[in-house]
């Protein structure tokens, strides 16, 4: 009887281990592109030289939930989008607005942040009070971003594009351009750090949602990212990251 009981218990343990193994997600290494010139969502820490920000903390938390190992690649925004579309990168997280045109080239996770475009000018500028005053003005934006797309829609506005949004702000402060258009968290970040030289004007004039871009065909990865995103959202991580990175 003891022997039969031992075999019965051993069988239960074996079944339990097998079931546990089936439910655990296998480890996966993911090559993720990011343009680390877009604080506070992604930038290079000057002291540690590591990429950090809202997006990085978010993806790292998702990765921990889904048994993913993330390999970040710092790349400019335009080639970042092209790289995901061509399958050079498995995914990208870089304040990427979900658009219909981009959906033709890549997959997107569920949205994780709402943003909008905003206008920034020098503090002594009194002629530009909103995007409606940008006609006839020279306006900077980062290449391939929705900011550049929106400036292109403004009649009479002259668009100057930059690989790095920081260079656009430098030109603005030096008087080389009249305004910059970019996502509101970035606009507020730069204006806040340069409050004696820059100011935001008007309100956000678009409604956009950020998502994690995924190369086409990688539906398993997309499902895992969405599953992890739901878990961290349910735990309140978005609110925590907003307080950490956006309320400084």
Offer a quick outline of the entry.
With 248 residues, this protein is α/β, with parallel strands linked by helices.
Describe this structure in words.
This protein is α/β, with parallel strands linked by helices. It folds into two domains: 27-114 and 209-246, D-Maltodextrin-Binding Protein, domain 2 (3-Layer(aba) Sandwich), CATH 3.40.190; 117-206, Periplasmic binding protein-like II (D-Maltodextrin-Binding Protein, domain 2, 3-Layer(aba) Sandwich). 40% of the residues lie in helices and 23% in strands. A five-stranded mixed beta sheet has the order 5-1-6-15-7, sandwiched between helices. It has a five-stranded mixed beta sheet with strand order 11-10-12-9-13, with helices on both faces. A three-stranded antiparallel beta sheet has the order 2-3-4, covered by helices on one side. β3 and β4 form a beta hairpin. The longest helix is centred in the first third of the chain and has 22 residues, at 2-23. The termini are far apart.
User: CATH homologous superfamily of the largest domain - what is it?
Assistant: Periplasmic binding protein-like II
**Which geometry do the CA atoms define?**
globular
User: What integer value in Å does the Rg equal?
Assistant: 23 Å
> Count of DSSP E strands?
15
């Amino acid at each position: 009887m003891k022997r039969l009981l031992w075999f019965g218990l051993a069988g239960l343990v074996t079944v339990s281990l097998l079931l546990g193994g089936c439910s655990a997600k296998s480890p996966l290494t993911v090559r993720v592109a990011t343009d680390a010139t877009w604080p506070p969502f992604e930038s290079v820490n000057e002291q540690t030289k590591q990429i950090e920000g809202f997006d990085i903390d978010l993806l790292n938390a998702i990765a921990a939930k889904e048994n993913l190992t993330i390999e970040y690649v710092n790349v400019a925004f335009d080639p970042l989008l092209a790289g995901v579309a061509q399958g050079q990168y498995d995914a990208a997280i870089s304040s990427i607005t979900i658009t219909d045109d981009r959906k033709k080239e890549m997959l997107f996770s569920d949205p994780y942040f709402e943003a909008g475009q905003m206008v920034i000018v020098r503090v002594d500028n009194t002629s530009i009070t909103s995007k409606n005053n940008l006609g006839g003005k020279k306006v900077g934006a980062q290449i391939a971003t929705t900011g550049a797309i929106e400036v292109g829609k403004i009649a009479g506005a002259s668009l100057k594009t930059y690989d790095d949004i920081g260079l656009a702000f430098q030109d603005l402060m030096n008087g080389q351009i009249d305004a910059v258009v970019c996502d509101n968290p970035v606009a507020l970040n730069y204006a806040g750090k340069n409050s004696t030289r820059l100011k935001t004007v008007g309100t956000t004039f678009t409604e956009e949602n950020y998502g994690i871009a995924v190369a086409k065909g990688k539906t398993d990865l997309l499902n895992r990212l969405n599953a992890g995103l739901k878990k961290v959202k349910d735990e309140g991580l978005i609110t925590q990251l907003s307080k950490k990175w956006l309320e400084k």
